[in-house]
Amino acid sequence: MATFNVLDYGAVSGGHIDNALAFLDAWNATCSSEAENSTLIIPRRRFLVNPTTFNGPCKAQSINFVILGRLLAPKSPEAWKDLDPGQWLAFHGVNGLKVAGPGTINGRGKRWWNQSCRYHPKLEGCTSRAPTALKVLSCKKSCLRDIHFINSSQAHVLIEGCDGIKIENLMIEAPGNSPNTDGIHIQSSQNVIINNTIIGSGDDCISIGDHISNIAISYIKCGPGHGISIGSLGKSGNVVHVENIHVSKVTLQGTTNGARIKTWQVGRGSVRGVRFEDFFLESVKNPIIIDQNYCEVRGACEELPTGVHISDVSFKNFYGTSSTNIAINLNCSHSVPCTGIFLKSVYLRSAIVGQNVTSSCRNAYGIASGLVRPSPCIQF
Fold first, then answer.
1. φ and ψ at residue 26, rounded to 5 degrees
2. Below-50 pLDDT ranges, the chain
3. Is the four-CA dihedral 351, 294, 134, 94 of positive or negative sign?
4. Distance (Å, rounded) from C-alpha 87 to C-alpha 63?
5. Which of 171, 133, 127 is nearest to 152 (CA)?
6. 300: which residues sit within 8 A by CB, 6+ positions away?
7. CA 229/CA 206 separation, integer angstroms
8. What is the C-alpha to C-alpha distance for residues 83 and 248, in angstroms, rounded to an integer?
9. Residue 15 burial (CB count, 10 A)
10. How far does Cα 296 stand from its chain's mean position?
């Protein structure tokens, strides 16, 4: 096995001098090594790194990127001038990649949050895009594990265009009021496993985008954040393809949603073969929610003849409390109803002593079995 240390390529610790070129030189040596297994080591020190992409393909069958220390993003958005504002660190086209800790990736996102158009729409020069801390792009048979992510400017981890990715033992932390700081977002990928991960953020803990299949998510702790979400999908009127999603053994505390599927009315295609099971929820606003009627003006969507067909979706073993009156909300399309919705062993009560919770259903068809509280309203 060949080993390469960034210090040997000019990296300077302390967190004040940019190390992007030194890291790239170390990466190029690692990637081009003739050894079957090649390892790049970032030692237990602080390193400032400007926006950087580590490109493949590599000669080695297995590439280990070992983060023992702390990687710091530039504090100022000015560091992204003339660069892609949506990206900080990225791996592209690397197969057999193993990115491992126990180090830290700190996005230092506060200045980006302070100029976010979402929270400061009247601010001159506000920004709608901000850097994702780590992108894994067009990689196969790779893994990400044992890393602590802190305060990304936007999403913390993006998996896109990948096949065969395993993510485990991550800790992801950002304030609950930070804008768009999703924990993990998956897009255009298949055969992804995520487990044993703790996420607290200002957006979805885990979000699943379009062109997705064969995703297994388990043993997740989420909060604060917006829960586990599929979507939103079909915003541009495109054909959606999402299937075979299994999410289990999830604990949510104080989140906006529990298990959610949301699609835009103008979308087409399908979401099918989704299993949510073994959820424990504490004071969650929308424990179970499907919304097929997403549009620009929320709550004032006109009925359209289009829609993404949501079918074969199960919610099993949901226990805990709702912080709102509607604990089960299935808002489906009149034109393209939800079908094959299955509820089993659901027991949700109000987080407020003395209050009751209810179900709300619209154009939702399926069955309920076992104890289901509040009483299900799906049509059989």
1. -65, -40
2. none
3. positive
4. 22
5. 133
6. none
7. 6
8. 39
9. 18
10. 22
Dihedral sign (CA 347, 172, 96, 53) = positive
| Residues paired with 368 in a beta bridge | 343
pLDDT for the residue numbered 125 = 85
Which residues have a catalytic role annotated?
A: 203, 226
- Whether residue 141 contacts residue 98, with contact meaning beta carbons closer than 8 Å, is answered with no
Contacts of 122 (CB under 8 A, 6+ apart): none
Tokens of 187: 């897009």
CA distance 4 to 154: 31
Do 130 and 180 contact (CB within 8 A), yes or no?
yes
Please list, in sequence order, all residues whose beta carbon lies within 8 angstroms of the beta carbon of residue 28, skipping any fewer than 6 positions away: none
**CA neighbor of 322 nearest in space, from 363, 263, 279:** 279
To the nearest 10°, the Cα dihedral for 275, 239, 205, 136? Answer: 110
Q: Which helix (H) or strand (E) holds 29?
A: helix 20-31
CB 190 within 8 A of CB 163: yes
Q: Kindly give, in sequence order, each residue whose CB lies less than 8 Å from that of residue 322, ignoring residues fewer than 6 positions away.
A: 281, 283, 284, 285, 286, 287, 348, 349, 350, 351, 357
Q: What are phi and psi of 118, to 5 degrees?
A: -65, -40
Integer angstrom CA distances of residue 321 from 115, 130, 230, 374, 375: 35, 34, 22, 11, 15
- Nearest alpha-carbon partner for 166 in 205, 136, 134, 203: 136
Report how far residue 194's alpha carbon sits from residue 202's, in angstroms, rounded to the nearest whole number: 20
Q: Are 361 and 333 in contact (CB under 8 A)?
A: no
pLDDT of residue 1: 83
Q: Which two tokens stand for residue 96?
A: 């057999």
CB atoms within 10 A of CB 44: 12
Give the β-pairing of 286-294 and 326-331.
parallel
The residue type of 321 is: T
Q: What is the CA radius of gyration of the chain?
A: 22
pTM of the model: 0.97
Q: What are the structure tokens assigned to 85, written together?
A: 């504002």
* Burial of residue 307, with CB atoms counted within 10 A of its CB: 0-12 exposed, 13-18 middle, 19 or more buried: buried
